[in-house]
Amino acid sequence: MARHWNPNWPVLKSYDIEHLARIALPVGGLGTGTLSLGGRGDLRDWEIVNRPAKGFVPRDAHGTRANTPSFVLRTHGAGGSTACRLLEGPLDSHDYEGAIGSPVPTAGLPRFRRCEFAAAYPFGQVHLSDPDLPCDARIESFNPLIPGDADRSGLPVAILRFVITNTSDSKLTVSVCGSLPNFIGTDGSIRTPCWDGTPLATGACKNRNQWRIGRKVRGISMHSEGVAPEAEAWGTLALTTTAKRGISWRTAWADRSWGDALLDFWDDFSEDGKVDERKHSRSDSPMASLAVRFSIPPRQSRAVTFLVTWHFPNRMTWTPAPAEGCGCQDGACEPADNRIGNYYTDRFADAWEVAEKVAEELPSLEESTRRFVSAFIESDLPKELREAALFNLSTLRSQSCFRTPDGYFYGWEGCHDSAGCCPGSCTHVWNYEQATPFLFGELARSMREVEFAHATDEQGMISFRVNLPLSRAREMGKAAADGQLGCIMKLYREWQLSGDEAMLSRLWSAARRALEFCWIEGGWDGDEDGVMEGCQHNTMDVEYYGPNPQMQGWYLGALRAGAAMAEYLGESDFAEHCRSLAAAGSAWMDAHLFNGEYYEQEIRPPADPGSIPAALAHSMGARDPAHPELQLGAGCLIDQLVGQYMAHICDLGYLHDPHMVRRTLRSIVQYNRRAEFHSHFNHLRSFVLGDESGILMASYPKGNRPERPFPYYNEVMTGFEYTLAAHLIYEGKLKKGLKVIAAVRQRYDGRKRNPFNEAECGHHYARAMASWAGVLAFTGFHYSAVTQTMSFADREGNWFWSNGDAWGMCHIKNSRNSWKVRLSVYHGELTLNAFGIHGKGETIFPTTRKITAVETITFRLER
After folding, report:
1. Under DSSP, is residue 461 helix (H, G, I), strand (E, B) or coil?
2. The pTM is what?
3. Cβ neighbours of residue 205 under 8 Å, at least 6 residues apart?
4. DSSP per-residue letters across 412-445
5. I want to staple 355 with a disulfide (CB 3.0 to 4.6 A). Which of 97, 240, 308, 598 is the partner?
6. Is 219 exposed, middle or buried (0-12, 13-18, 19+ CB in 10 A)?
């Protein structure tokens, strides 16, 4: 590790100055929104006001373009030498040209010449240096991320620590000053700031800043007296420091024209490293500044910590971008019951209280987060796998996800620049990701509660997009075949991981109905032969007609999971029926869909298109079901074995002939992988270009491509690639699986794309969290709280494990005739009756072992 990084913080990957332009590390809590630490040290993408806001950097509306959130350093050394610098690195070449100069608001401020970035999410560090300065600077930023503890991981705060190192041989007096406009009333979208349509120039927002001294923090509290309290963008902000001495502040900048407000600030701060109060007659969005001055001995370092906290309680239901000039959709204000609120805002009175509580617990929050990240990256997982799994956890904290006051967790599919993309915790997209259940089991279980207790109707149809509030959960009234069947497998997964029998008993009747829904007249398997034949809406946003491997795999997995849950609950007849259908369906699929190299779709138009149940057909599919377009047909699909992928994760065994499974995976890599894309035609979205490599969604190596295949067949999307990679690893194809993952991460290299934002239909796409499945596959980790057993692959090493409520490390060493195991719990509690190594046997403990944090047990497993 380079000596200039924080020695107490883990570093997984560092980026040089050529790979900083796209970096934006989200800093915020689960369900709170985030702002991002840019690669050069800037603060960008302020997405804290209940909606996405890519590119949004708040400004003082009556100041200059440079009056944006920023931190500035002043040094005063021997002989009276003084220097001031923006605490940011140099601009990228793309930041030079704009309609009125550089598009970067702070472009005219002097900045550091050299810059590097290092990260092990959620920790981000920026190192700044300049040969003309007597010091180096390091920006450290994070938000607590502690698996198994959603509350402490759900704090609306950006923690910013500035570590200044005196590189000279004499004492240095240093000041760090942060500035933030009170932008309450704006959210980065096109809505007007004060919600009621009143132009900002009238001063109607009446935003106010106040200097406050608290128990643990000092700083500026921000509120509004003009923004309507029911507005989505109404709330509070705070800019505070944990420093006790050397503090100066101003609650407003000077009211001057021609950019002279910034000139006044620069002159004031440059003079003595302090800021003095100014009066601002137009106080719509006053700019606040908070400075801390301190001394640093020669060759020593000192740190100062700032907190940016927020509190915006008025989240609205699945709201798209509003109409221009109005705070509501289509010019009409939203009904009161469209306000669904935020879980995090019910925990705190305002942003100031957030700052006080975070400051009080900061050492513990930092240590708990460090312990998790260090354990994970110090495991023996390959680096590309650690990077893909860890960096994609940022999605859980983006505006793709939120929690309502009742604690339920929801997700968009992803985010457009200023609105969520594809609402309703879409069941088929969220089928793929594995981060939530294995790191925050409480949140995953809440999603199952929503799906089965609220979104499932009396017939068993699950609305694959849940509406909000929950009283309208079933309004969509459409079922997705893969989404519905995946929900059954996810319920099984959550039950196994938690052992929550009460949850299973409570939701089982709905889950059983959801399986039985497959057998309705004209349905997916209307003749109950174990084969999916009907109109199957799916994650390709079309309907497949006829048997196909993708939906059939989900069906077989759901039947297996349903049988296991039914048997446990004493419903043996239903369990046997599910098992017999699964066996028949598996045999039929292997016999009829496998072409010797991979599985194909048998396109089978319905005999009577008019008889298709309304809940099964979406408007995005074939216009004429009698002659359906947008099918897979003879294509080699990247996730044709997705049901088997999920079955491996759930420890449900093989759904298909294992030899056919492995041959199919080999074919997918052989036919769908592209080493470069210079000659590749793609008529839709492009997530891979030029010299980059990736796995196509589908190929047609045997010809017979439909004139109009399913729309995404020419694309490359990371969530599907991770699914394939994890499955390859499960089947022992480690090098091939890791090569797929490495290619993805090479595309997200900081220069071309943001390493913390893998896109599909929108930023921070949920499916990309399938990357966590690679961890499960490589370690072979399985845990059942029902049988209280844990197992790993027969591979030596030091492995991170997590089951959603507890986590720790497991060290496995092959020692002659036995395996030596050292199992540690770092968080939560673990109950074990047995421990196994796949294919090598297991140890059954004489009595149930209950291991609590922080505790380690050692034992041997005879080979």
Report:
1. coil
2. 0.96
3. 184, 185, 193, 194, 224, 226, 227, 284, 285
4. -SEE-SSSEES-S--HHHHTT--HHHHH-HHHHH
5. 240
6. buried
